[in-house]
UniProtKB/TrEMBL annotation, chain A:
Native organism: Ureibacillus acetophenoni
Lineage, top ranks: Bacteria, Bacillati, Bacillota, Bacilli, Bacillales
The protein's name in its UniProt record: 3-isopropylmalate dehydratase large subunit
Pathway annotation: Amino-acid biosynthesis; L-leucine biosynthesis; L-leucine from 3-methyl-2-oxobutanoate: step 2/4
Function description: Catalyzes the isomerization between 2-isopropylmalate and 3-isopropylmalate, via the formation of 2-isopropylmaleate.
Cofactor binding notes: Binds 1 [4Fe-4S] cluster per subunit.
Automatic annotation (TrEMBL), chain B:
Record keywords: Amino-acid biosynthesis, Branched-chain amino acid biosynthesis, Leucine biosynthesis, Lyase
Subunit structure: Heterodimer of LeuC and LeuD.
Catalytic reactions of this protein: (2R,3S)-3-isopropylmalate = (2S)-2-isopropylmalate
BP-aspect Gene Ontology terms: L-leucine biosynthetic process
Entry's family note: Belongs to the LeuD family. LeuD type 1 subfamily.
Source domain of life: Bacteria
Stored CDD domains: IPMI_Swivel
EC number: 4.2.1.33
Entry keyword annotation includes rRNA-binding: no
A molecular function (GO) term: 3-isopropylmalate dehydratase activity
Pathway: Amino-acid biosynthesis; L-leucine biosynthesis; L-leucine from 3-methyl-2-oxobutanoate: step 2/4
Protein name, entry field: 3-isopropylmalate dehydratase small subunit
Cellular compartments per GO CC: 3-isopropylmalate dehydratase complex
Length: 472, 196
């Protein structure tokens, strides 16, 4: 039998109908729903008199718009309407909902794995590009638009052209103080934000195998920032152990049966891909983005690029435009960039291990007087778990605000925005113009790097802190 | 969905690459629960200053491009979020065709579901059209049936398109209605689906 990669295996087991000259009709195992990209889809169903085919394969929550303080008050009337619309739609169509204040509520990509809904081998979709996060479990998970949300609601399928496959192998082991976030930022900085367009990426290599499930989620989460349709990692024992005893995971004998099936999905030795890229973990240092897309990033020890480093006129122009927006100079050392805000949160880096990593740097220290910091746990249950370990106290003592879960300043749809012209060290995934607020300047970093910057008021090499801590 | 075949119009040259969906439609406009009315928010922060006045330098505000149905940009158009509000805004503003050397996958998909024709030409071809359009208003005929873009100067550019999506756009099909024809196959699949 020919060696197959996991992408081909999952694809092939989900084909409902195949025909020359048409995309494949694929079955969808799990449909995650949130308030921003679903109202028009439900409205479409109603207008056409259609039903939800499999409400049991849907799960809904509120995350993008929800306030992260003074709950349950929602000041913004339009946001409130959108949130209430989802609650009504979930009720009308019989879909399970983790509403505001519900113990399962959280960022959709954080709660899917927490609840054990995310499982290897599933096809998972959501009207959200960071659906790729679920690929960490060896699921084929990708973002869709609202018309496709409507299509999945009414048919539980999607027409999909088979994308090309790409292997990105991360060799060796990460240095101390270097994290999963730095791996994915380094990949995007190296090959650009279009490198994955039209492809599904499988991340392989020793460095990936060594990562925890939460770290793997950080990597897969940002596949879309590399342009990929999806990113995934073949399941292994860590995947299985993460899922054991989760609410929606199978139980008892059924679990063992499932586990055997999950492990069988891992890419076969010798499987081939359309594109192969490789990078050494040892060459990666903590990364800070300096520009207005996620590929505009570099190591903490480096400087902002200069236009003579680029060949084409359009690249030089892009650099100038980005630096004008960011208020930075060519050749400026990254460490000299002063920040006014720190945001620890988002579906990239708001899980318990992320909060722990930041807290370990902050513990016993105060944040810089010129900096305002907020910590937004990815879910209600993450928040509870963090509080049980006393992390909230560490952050509050240092001068951070400790919030309720939601997307928050990752995209600033609620009140959590960064003012124009001010700078934020952010653990989120996008540094586009205006992403965190009109005129706001976003620098993407790992939770540990964000924490260190909060203390110093400018970017610093977190490895210094980690080493100090180890010497003590 | 409105069918599309032939469109003739002056092009709007948006000479940028990596135009992301946050720029196309900013998050403050995503709270509406309707599909329509997003056109006035298209490229909002490029189009208007903080006081809400038109920025005269931005291409959409120049009188010579008003009423255009064809947007031309550079590489990786529509990258970023999955928000379908981006194609809704583009369509509602009046564009039916977007031409670029490459598109982000989700955006590309979303276009077909809304009767927008995304055309991939090579980087050189896009550069040529952009520079003509930036120089002076440049009108082109787009013909989906023939898969051609023909400039007013007679220059012809051919493009490829997935035959399935071509049919869908030409006929203005409702994809869900099409899929319902396969209901039996979906039920058959469900009966033997691997699920735990
Ligand atoms: S946290 Fe940010 S990237 Fe993640 S789903 Fe929410 S808005 Fe999107």
């Amino acid at each position: 039998m020919m060696a197959k990669n996991i992408i081909e295996k999952i694809w092939d087991t989900h084909i409902v109908h195949q025909e020359e000259g048409k995309p494949d009709l694929l079955y969808i195992d799990l449909h995650l729903i949130h308030e921003v990209t679903s109202p028009q889809a439900f409205e479409g169903l109603r207008l056409a008199g259609r039903k939800v085919r499999r409400p049991d394969l849907c799960f809904a929550t509120m995350d993008h718009n929800v306030p992260t303080k003074n709950l349950p008050t929602i000041n913004d009337p339009i946001a409130k309407k959108q949130i209430m619309t989802l609650a009504e739609n979930a009720k009308e169509f019989g879909i399970e909902l983790a509403d505001i204040g519900h113990p399962d509520q959280g960022i959709v990509h954080v709660i899917g794995p927490e609840l054990g809904l995310t499982q290897p081998g599933k096809t998972i979709v959501c009207g959200d590009s960071h659906t790729s996060t679920h690929g960490a479990f060896g699921a084929l998970a990708f973002g869709i638009g609202t018309s496709e949300v409507e299509h999945v609601l009414s048919t539980q399928t999607l027409w999909q052209n088979k994308p090309k496959t790409m292997e990105i192998r991360v060799n060796g082991q990460l240095g101390v103080g270097v994290t999963a976030k730095d791996i994915i930022l380094a990949i995007i900085a190296k090959w650009g934000i279009g490198v994955g367009t039209g492809h599904i990426v499988e991340y392989t290599g020793d460095a990936i195998r060594s990562l925890t499930m939460e770290e793997r989620m950080t990597i897969c989460n940002m596949s879309i920032e590399a342009g990929a349709k999806a990113g995934l990692i073949s399941p292994d024992e860590k995947t299985v152990e993460f899922l054991r005893d989760r609410r929606h995971a199978p139980k008892g004998e059924k679990f063992e049966e499932a586990a055997a099936y999950w492990l069988s999905l891992a890419s076969d030795p010798g499987a081939s891909y359309d594109v192969f890229l490789e990078i050494d973990a040892e060459e990666i240092e903590p990364i800070v983005t300096w520009g207005t897309n996620p590929s505009m990033g570099t190591g903490i020890s480096k400087t902002v690029p200069t236009s003579d480093q680029y060949e084409s006129e359009s690249d030089k122009q892009a650099l100038k435009k980005a630096l004008a927006y960011m208020g930075l100079e060519e050749g400026q050392p990254i460490e000299s960039i002063e920040i006014q805000h720190v945001f620890i949160g988002s579906c990239t880096n708001s899980r318990l291990s992320d909060l722990k990593a930041a807290a370990s740097i902050i513990e016993g220290k105060k944040i810089h007087p010129g900096v305002r910091g907020i910590v937004v746990p990815g879910s209600w249950s993450t928040k509870k778990a963090a509080e049980e370990e006393g992390l909230d106290k560490i952050f509050l003592d240092a001068g951070f605000e400790w919030r309720e879960s939601g997307c928050s300043a990752c995209l600033g749809m609620n009140e959590d925005t960064i003012p124009a012209g001010e700078r934020c060290a952010s653990t989120s995934n996008r540094n586009f113009e205006g992403r965190q607020g009109a005129g706001a300047r976003t620098h993407l970093v790992s939770p540990a790097m964000a924490a260190a910057a909060a203390i110093e008021g400018h970017f610093v090499d977190v490895r210094k802190y980690v080493q100090q801590a180890q010497e003590v | 969905m409105e069918p599309i075949n032939k469109i003739t119009s002056v092009i709007t040259p948006l000479d940028r690459k990596n135009v992301d969906t946050d720029q196309i439609i900013s998050k403050e406009f995503l709270k509406r629960i309707e599909r329509t009315g997003f056109g006035r928010f298209l490229f909002y922060h490029w189009r208007f200053d903080e006081q809400g006045n038109e920025n005269p330098d931005f291409v959409l505000n120049k009188p010579e491009y008003k009423g255009s149905h064809i947007l031309v940009a550079q590489d990786n158009f529509g990258c970023g979020s999955s928000r379908e509000h981006a194609p809704w805004a583009i369509l509602d503003y009046g564009f039916r065709v977007v031409i670029a050397p490459s598109f982000a996958d989700i955006f590309h998909n979303n276009c077909f579901k809304n009767g927008i024709l995304p055309i991939k030409l090579t980087e050189e071809e896009c550069d040529e059209i952009l520079s003509k359009g930036l120089n002076a208003p440049y009108s082109v005929d787009v013909n989906l049936e023939e898969q051609t873009v023909t400039g007013e100067d007679g220059k012809v550019f051919n493009f490829n398109i997935d035959p399935y999506y071509k049919e869908m756009l030409l006929n203005g099909w409702d994809e869900i209605a099409l899929t319902f024809k396969y209901e039996d196959k979906i039920s058959e699949y469900e009966a033997k689906r691997i699920a735990f």
